[in-house]
Amino acid sequence: MRANTLLRLALSLGFVLVCGCAAAPPAPDVAADKSGGAGNGDAAAKSKVEVALPRVLEPQLNQDPYPSSYRPLPRRRTAIVGATVLTGTGRQIENGVLVMDEGKVVVVGDASTPVPADAQRIDAQGRWVTPGLIDVHSHLGVYPSPGVSSRQDGNEMTDPNTAGVWAEHSVWPQDPAFQRARAGGVTTLQVLPGSANLFGGRSVTLKNVPAVTARAMKFPGAPYSLKMACGENPKRVYGGKGRLPSTPMGNVFAYRKAWLDASEYAHKWAVYRAKLANGEKADPPKRDLTLDTLAGVRAGEILIQNHCYRADEMAMMIDIAREFDLRIAAFHHANEAYKIGPLLAQQGICSAIWAERSGTKMEAFDGIGENAALLHRAGACVVIHSDDTDIIQRLNQEAAIALGAGLRAGIDISRAEAIGWITSNAARVLGVADRTGSLEPGKAADVVLWSRDPFSVYALAEQVFIDGALVYDRHDPRYQPRSDFELGQPAGGDFHP
Amino acid sequence: MSFTSLVSGPASLLALSTATLATMLVTCPVAAGPASSAAVGDRSEAPTVAIVGARLETVSHGVIDAGTLVLARGRIAALGRNATAPSGARVIDGRGLTVTPGLFAASSNLMVAEVNLLTPTRDDGSGENLSAGFDVQYGINPASIGVPVARLSGVTHAAITPLVGRISIGEHDGDEAALQGGGEGGEFQPALFAGQAAIVRLAHGDVRPLIRARSAVALDLGEAGADNAGGSRGAELVLVRAALADARHLAANRAAFDRGEGRAYGLPRIDLEALVPVVQGRTPLLIRASRASDIRQALSLAREEKVRIILEGAEEGWLAAREIADARVPVLLDPQADLPRAFESLGARLDNAARLQSAGVLIAIKGGRNFNSLRPMRLNAGVAVAYGLTHDQALAAITLNPARIWGLDGRIGSLEVGKDADVVVWNGDPLENLSDPVALFIGGVEQPMSSRRTQLRDRYLKPEDGLPPAYH
Lengths: 497, 472
Hints:
The complex is a heterodimer. Chain A is of the alpha/beta class. Chain A folds into two domains: 60 residues, no CATH class; 306 residues, TIM Barrel. Chain A has twelve helices and 19 strands. In chain A, the strands form four sheets. In chain A, strands 3, 4, 5, 6, 7, 17, 18 and 19 form an eight-stranded mixed sheet that branches. The N and C termini of chain A lie far apart (55 Å). The N terminus of chain A is likely disordered. Chain B has two domains: 117 residues, Urease, subunit C, domain 1 (Roll); 310 residues, Metal-dependent hydrolases (TIM Barrel), CATH 3.20.20.140. In chain B, helix 10 links the parallel strand 12 and strand 13. Chain B is globular, with a radius of gyration of 23 Å. The two termini of chain B are 44 Å apart. The interface between A and B is large, with 78 and 69 residues.
């Protein structure tokens, strides 16, 4: 704020502005005082310095102010031999071999695949291997356990548009639920703001490693997403306060207004940058954190994760996206997605859904257990998500129940395909499919070794690897990390035998 | 074990067998209107059915690998390896199928709640005016769309248990629940007890599904109970004990009370009347408690007040397993509970069920409260097996054990001659994710395999023919 005032003052006095733009190297906050003066405002005014736009005022220089500080845990060259491997790319390999080294999958293949002599060898006969599971819809850390009133940090329920808030700033990394989710095979998760607002804020994609700071869990290089919500929640929250929106038409008005604001904002910055590039004088637009996020979405740098239950409302959101040239990565919850499978397939929009949870409110009234299977049959992208601290521990069971419903309806889906609902398709929703979500050479060695067919109710994750490092071992207490919170408590952080 | 092989076969085979069986078994038209209650209630109308060559998981007497089960006049007439189909019986080829007793939802809001967030459809909360006197039986709606949904997951019976106050609480704990819990309730001081539970049977077309009213009086201890009593546990247990003393006094001094000569009571007469069968040991208190110390308080209450109790929740039950077993107190629990969701459940563990079982506690495994969450009852039983129960113990925990806990094991809960013909025919291990019921019988009458959800499914399964789905 103060810097901005100074800047405007400097501009009104007609000083030449030197600005950083996307291609330029980072500019210092204040350009060097060529006269060697003290550099404060008064001195600068007197000594005719060139004042750069302070770095923090230029959105393009500040797209990643809190980069990941994640470091992989200690790891060694490892080969898992003899397991049934579901690759996440639609293949099922019997008696397979998976070799990982330096955090990457080196090779995955059948029994003829050579195993490096110096690799740690895990004999996995009778067991199953899948990519690490990915939950695209979680509130771990922002609605942590215990769910006490002082930790209900997932919904900035004070304005229908809080696109400028970032979930990572609410994440409590000591949430004991991270440990449980890891024991369920979850290696990557997207933590989202809640659905109270039309624009809830930015999500954060995390590697599910124990850490003291949220930044140390951030998935390096994962794009941000914007959480949006349609339907009942925003209109209930704000209509209840006598504010807009109180109806779906109010919702749509407010989306469109925000996208217009973002378009105008992006345009102002484009004009400003163009003038600078031409050597013209220009007033920089005022940087706005809310519009930064929305403009980032318009530019395709930030993905849209859209909480939306009803088919007609999803279709409406697609119309709005077309109007403003936006792309929706996924509809979340999407109880009625099965009604518009072909549209979703044609649009390339994923549906992140439960197996059968529905009916809890009017917009969820038409949910059916065959949602996933019907979407799959329509060629649409299916993702099974949790939005829940129990389901995130059993995403494989949730996928299995959805698979079972499909088989019951006569829709033939293989395990090799269905595992994609919680691995490769989920990675696609988060924009990290080039790095994780499937077992292919060069991808991250995010791997789960299961006691048996992961679609069985009796299956347990026995070992979990993130970037090739063993982060959880069901049979070795050294690899059963505990949250600080649980030390000294009745179970001491031990939640299974 | 052999049950695993049934579900690990090729998916297409599984689907094929399901479809074939559906065609073979479903005799009622899918969209049939409600049958008359006479047809459901009159056992003599139930046809004789023999399921031949099936795996019979009797629960009470182990597993019969390839046996015959005969249903006649609404009851189980015969079962065993050597049982034979009576002449004239409808014979179902049970090879490759598994038969179990119907599942029993041990604590739910089935038939008294339709859409969780819509208060007008919720009749499982005691409201503002009543405490123990609240009685869920009067809100029972057998036409709830949840009934066929629950039945298609194998449920034939449910206990309807009340909650304190006005209800609008979501079932899951992400942002949805935070929102759903946020807006409503809280302006009035809820009463101490939640009210009286009831038991229902899920027979299609049965307009009188209630099979037992006033089956328990529910009471929250712990954090919720403290809140109900004005803020702390010490307040609650004093008030609860005083209420039980008042109920005892009322029972012994009714005439005086009616003459206006009784002493002052802490609760209105309506509520005390509901507690009279409790203090007389005829009706149990259903006590919801999580923390080990709260569980011990419940056990002390039971011992000192000479009341029967059932524990629900009991996330830290494993820390008091021996005491619960010694007190012969049964427990309704959720085997997935492994998070310190509240300060009263910091010790939640995945092997709670197995530890309680091995200490000798009679356990029943719950799904969620509402019909949307009854499918997880089976999942929960499977999870309990993954963490230490045997398969037989887990199946008992969703059939015979809840029947025993709710006092109905003389009629239901196992495959035994003379018990009600409430049975489920499965295409695989009943606990497995990829298994489903292919037929259900309640009172010997075959149940339709459709629900509002299957009708939605079938409408959108149909290939595009130029007409909007509303014509299908």
